């Protein structure tokens, strides 16, 4: 296990994973602390947070965090999402058009190791996650081989940029943790390809076996 920045808040960019695109990079201090705190309070107050349910071992359970999602061209986009999007677009150099938000209310909230679904995304466009509020640890692990788990502490105002390619090779997650100092928000900016997204949805609803070919 490798832990980055567990105790010290070192404002050093870290290249965590290398690949043919931009790999996975941790960029601390991308937003000044006062701005990060103001955005945290605004997003917490202005966003309507939803509680989702999912099936686990044939039982329906609460997803252990609150979530929200916006297209960045939505006319009723709550403050401060447009300002944050503009900042993150210029940091990552990508024309993000969608943001998924997670609210981790305390150390019991989490997201299991996973890769982002790529089918509805613009190919080769990165995903950038802005952290606000309490610091939480992200685990990053290669899907194959005996690779170590990388642990990176995501401080408020930091951005982690993950390549499209890395979603095929690595999983990332936010584990439950003791001693977390309050809620955390993550704003995950993505480039959604609406045509690919609609094809994916259409295919998902097609019957697997057609009547003429049972
Ligand atoms: O909260 C984070 O930093 C990770 C969020 C995440 O993995 C996701 O939205 O898919």
TrEMBL record:
Q: Which GO terms describe its molecular function?
A: dioxygenase activity
Q: Which Gene3D superfamilies does this entry report, sorted A to Z?
A: Alpha-ketoglutarate-dependent dioxygenase AlkB-like
SUPFAM superfamilies, alphabetized: Clavaminate synthase-like
| Gene Ontology biological process terms from the UniProt entry | DNA alkylation repair
Q: Where are the transmembrane segments?
A: none
InterPro entries attached here? AlkB-like, AlkB-like_sf, ALKBH3, Oxoglu/Fe-dep_dioxygenase_dom
**Fe2OG dioxygenase domain segment(s):** 95-193
Among PROSITE patterns, the record links this protein to: FE2OG_OXY
UniProt-recorded name of the protein: DNA-3-methyladenine glycosylase
